[in-house]
Amino acid sequence: MAKDVILNPPAYSLGEFTLDTAYTSRELSQARADLGTEIARGFKLNIPFLSAAMQAVTGPELATELARCGGLGVIYCSQPTPSEAEMVRQVKMGAVRAEEYTYPFQPLLDGQGRLKVGAAINTKDYAERVPALVEAGVDILFVDSSHGNTEYQKETIEFVKQHYPELPIVGGNIINVDGVNRLVAAGADGVKVGMGIGSICITTDVKATGKGQASAVMECVAARNQLPKYIPVTADGGIETAREMCIALALGADAVMLGKYFARFEEAPGGKLSRADFLNIFPQMGNKLDPAIEYLKEYWGEGSLRARIHREAQYRYGQNEFAEGVDGYTEYAGPLKENLSRTMTKLIKSMHDAGANSVSELHERAVVRLASARSMSEAHAHDLISYRKASLF
Ligand code: IMP
User: Fold this and answer.
1) Residue 148 and residue 166 in contact, taking contact as beta carbons nearer than 8 Å
2) In angstroms, what is the span from residue 377 Cα to ligand 1's centroid?
3) Which of 56, 113, 274, 307 places its Cα 20 to 30 Å from the Cα of 325?
4) CB distance 119 to 133 below 8 Å
């Protein structure tokens, strides 16, 4: 018999919840909405979005554009130290012309007016990698692991805190109370939550480990709320639509980390294919591919075989002989800024419906409810013979 078998409640995903309404006053105007948030003690973002530390998501171009819009890119560590440090350096060199980024975007800048950037580290070569990233000007570190509640991660965080006490570090990924407490005890300034739920992730399929993201966020937020100091929680994985972002934040996450959402944009490193190119490679997809899709982007997991071959990606899932992620395609969505602006508008409208004008007010005021399967089926367009799909992003 296992130490514990939990039959009730089962673990829930973000898509199973709805946000109730509250009184929306005139005070809740879009112009006054505040999407600012903290992702580590003392480290603020202007919008609650981070891009995933993945080869197919966060290169210097996407990190630069996201920081210009007020969020944070996290450069991936599944590459040799010098090339990761070089990517950090390229973001720090990105110039910002103020007139380009008027409301709703406020660039995320350091004390010297340079764009901020994060970088991932692993639990193996941190003694060599961290000094190189610091030298390149990194603003915040993220320990990149699918299972962060380990002695290896504890030692990694302790090393960073001992040598660079002022440099914020986010630990993860964890999915329960013990994970939060141990990472915070090791010195983490923030924690990242999620396992087994990323769009390219097959961790639960192959190893059984993981948890529905809504339940993981709720458990970790509850653990954080018992701590004497406020440790920000970032929800990472399985979050793509404004609706999922809104539920993750309403359940207490301070920010969301997104992989597939950003992989679809022009600035993401993955290759862009036309519909015809794609159908040349996969002719059998001809009648399955949505006729509205004109272009596609490549998107692959850090635990996929492709990531391992690409740029000596030997760390996060290094010793495994099996894949924990897949390699595929997603719909191309155009430039980051336009898409992000639309997502932010949706998020602000959701917050207003819930009577909140900021992420912290959403935490205080949101009423989130588990929905029945039948009521959720009515959340989608239904009972029509034909309709044109609207974008959920
Ligand atoms: P997405 O936003 O649903 O696409 O999920 C992105 C997140 O999935 C990343 O931030 C990682 O935490 C996680 N992830 C990245 N690569 C892999 C993988 O190969 N297997 C499992 N999880 C992954």
Assistant:
1) no
2) 27
3) 274
4) yes
Which burial class, exposed, middle or buried, applies to 102 when counting CB atoms under 10 A from its CB (0-12, 13-18, 19+)?
exposed
Tokens of 67: 């920081």
264 lines ligand 1 (CB under 6 A): no
Q: What is the pLDDT along the chain (393 residues), one digit of tens a residue?
A: 999 999 999 999 999 999 999 999 998 887 789 999 999 999 999 999 999 999 999 999 999 999 999 999 999 999 999 999 999 999 999 887 656 666 668 999 999 999 999 999 999 999 999 999 999 999 999 999 999 999 999 999 999 999 999 999 999 999 999 999 999 999 999 999 999 999 999 999 999 999 999 999 999 999 999 999 999 999 999 999 999 999 999 999 999 999 999 999 999 999 999 999 999 999 998 888 998 999 999 999 999 999 988 655 455 555 567 899 999 999 999 999 999 999 999 999 999 999 999 999 999 999 999 999 999 999 888 889 988 888 777
How far apart, in whole angstroms, are the C-alpha atoms of residue 315 and residue 81? 12
Q: Strands across the sheet with 272-274, in order?
A: 272-274, 295-300, 327-331
Q: What is the rounded distance in angstroms from the CA atom of residue 258 to the CA atom of residue 45?
A: 15
Mutate to test the pocket of ligand 1, among 49, 54, 309, 322 (most ligand atoms within 8 A of CB): 54
Instruction: Write down the residue that tokens 């899709």 correspond to.
Output: 293
Token pair of 392, please?
A: 């959920």
Q: What DSSP line would sit under 347-374, residue for residue?
A: HHHHHHHTT-SBHHHHHHH--EEEPPHH
Buried/exposed 158-187: b ≥16 CB within 10 Å, e otherwise: ebbbeebeebbbbbbbbbbeebbbbbbebb
Helix or strand run (H / E) with residue 111: none
Which residues are marked as active site? 201, 316
Task: Please give the number of the atom of ligand 1 that sits closest to the Cα of 192.
Answer: 12
* This prediction's pTM: 0.96
DSSP state of 393: -
Tokens of 17: 């919840």
